[in-house]
């Protein structure tokens, strides 16, 4: 059995190696000729899986995408050919939730503000949006949710998008990309909606770049420096609008979900599904893939201040490093107001490919040596809470 896998997908050899021959490919540049003799295709969001890609393949048994979203997959086409498909919903939700939480702490620190005093609006209350809400709730931040797709079947309280914008100091976007229909998200934040943001709003996008009209965002930011923006996703990836980057407080190349745990979880979910399709019993565990918890252990005496909580978070993941590297890679040798071909200069995709260092909060043990209640840190995800 031939297994064709994106070269950026981790742990493929460990999980799928005894099932057949593995060939890794550049997922963004995958061709029908490369895919024609694959029995199993494992992709990420950069690969469009459709009739064109599989036009030469008559034997494929399974397609898996180690992603939450499926907008890059023609699921109707796969169903028409009875090709089993699975994605990995929720695989990187914790990673995205922690990324967004850390980004908010960074903004609060940069502008001498307090995250805890903010009201945060989450647009899209699925797996990743809920993970953000979980971190914020653990820290005691007031949260409002907007998600018309699930509002009728979800017991949580929801507000309209207009109300959320009116009431919230911080807005974080976590919706799939949909181009048509009642709940279209393509350019959900267009020029008019961007201009309707409250003064000093923080706007974070870690879902899909086209949820914000990037050209309109440039125009609005030129007129409103009070709005602070964090972008992990960009319209036109892997070629973001170069002129937008200077207007963004924290800029990264679609790596919010790129923790070791999130990557392992995504690949492992596809392994479990393939074993089910093949009618075989899974004999591997996800825990065997990851390094053990860090041997380092932090002891704290009291409930950390917001600045010390940021320092604790930076011990796990310092977002500033990725922001600095992104700007250096994207802007190097590029003139102002020129759209960069990042695929050719390897900036955007190379940084994603090499992003293998990040862990989640759960990798760090935190032990209280004082009398203060720090159990809420366990709700953030830290391990070893207690005395």
TrEMBL record:
What's the top EC group for this one? oxidoreductase
Q: Provide the protein name.
A: Erythronate-4-phosphate dehydrogenase
Where's it found, cell-wise?
Cytoplasm
Which PANTHER family does the entry mention? 2-HYDROXYACID DEHYDROGENASE YGL185C-RELATED, 2-HYDROXYACID DEHYDROGENASE-RELATED
Q: How the protein assembles, per its UniProt entry?
A: Homodimer.
Reactions catalysed, as given in the entry:
4-phospho-D-erythronate + NAD(+) = (R)-3-hydroxy-2-oxo-4-phosphooxybutanoate + NADH + H(+)
SUPFAM superfamilies linked: Formate/glycerate dehydrogenase catalytic domain-like, NAD(P)-binding Rossmann-fold domains
Q: Which keywords, in A-to-Z order, does the entry hold? A: Cytoplasm, NAD, Oxidoreductase, Pyridoxine biosynthesis
Domain Erythronate-4-phosphate dehydrogenase dimerisation residues, every copy: 289-381
Catalytic residues, per the record, are: 208, 237, 254 (proton donor)
Family per UniProt? Belongs to the D-isomer specific 2-hydroxyacid dehydrogenase family. PdxB subfamily.
Every copy of the D-isomer specific 2-hydroxyacid dehydrogenase NAD-binding domain together lies at 113-256
Question: Gene3D superfamilies this protein is in?
Answer: 3.30.1370.170, NAD(P)-binding Rossmann-like Domain
EC number, as in UniProt:
1.1.1.290
Claim: Manganese is one of the keywords in the record: no
What organism does this protein naturally occur in? Shewanella eurypsychrophilus
């Amino acid at each position: 059995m031939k297994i064709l896998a994106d070269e950026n997908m981790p742990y493929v050899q460990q999980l799928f190696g005894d099932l057949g021959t593995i060939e890794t490919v550049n997922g963004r540049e995958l061709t029908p000729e490369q895919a024609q003799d694959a029995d199993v295709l494992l992709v990420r969001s950069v690969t469009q899986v459709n009739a064109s890609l599989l036009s030469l393949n008559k034997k494929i048994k399974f397609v898996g995408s180690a992603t939450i979203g499926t907008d890059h997959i023609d699921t109707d086409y796969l169903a028409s050919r009875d090709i089993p498909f699975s994605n990995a919903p929720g695989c990187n939700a914790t990673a995205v939730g922690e990324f967004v939480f850390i980004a908010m702490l960074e903004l609060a620190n940069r502008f001498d503000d307090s995250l805890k005093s903010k009201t945060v609006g989450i647009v899209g209350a699925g797996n990743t949006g809920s993970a953000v809400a979980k971190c914020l709730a653990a820290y005691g931040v007031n949260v409002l949710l907007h998600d018309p797709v699930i509002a009728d079947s979800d017991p949580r309280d929801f507000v309209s998008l207009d109300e959320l914008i009116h009431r919230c100091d911080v807005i974080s976007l976590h919706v799939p990309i949909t181009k048509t229909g009642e709940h279209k998200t393509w350019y959900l934040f267009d020029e008019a909606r961007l201009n309707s943001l409250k003064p000093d709003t923080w706007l974070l996008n870690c879902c899909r770049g086209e949820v914000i009209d990037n050209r309109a965002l440039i125009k609005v930011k030129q007129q409103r420096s009070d709005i602070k923006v964090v972008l992990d996703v960009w319209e036109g990836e892997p070629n973001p609008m170069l002129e937008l980057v200077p207007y963004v407080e924290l800029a990264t190349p679609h790596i919010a979900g790129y923790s070791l745990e999130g990557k392992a979880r995504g690949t492992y979910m596809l392994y479990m599904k393939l074993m089910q399709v093949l009618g075989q019993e899974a004999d591997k565990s996800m825990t065997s893939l990851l390094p053990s918890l860090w041997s380092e252990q932090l002891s704290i005496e009291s409930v950390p201040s917001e600045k010390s909580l940021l320092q604790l978070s930076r011990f796990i993941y310092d977002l500033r490093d990725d922001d600095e590297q992104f700007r250096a890679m994207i802007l190097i040798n590029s003139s102002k107001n020129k759209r960069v071909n990042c695929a050719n200069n390897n900036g955007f995709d190379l940084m994603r490919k090499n992003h293998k260092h990040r862990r989640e909060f759960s990798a760090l043990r935190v032990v209280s040596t004082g009398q203060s209640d720090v159990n809420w840190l366990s709700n953030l995800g830290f391990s070893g809470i207690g005395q």
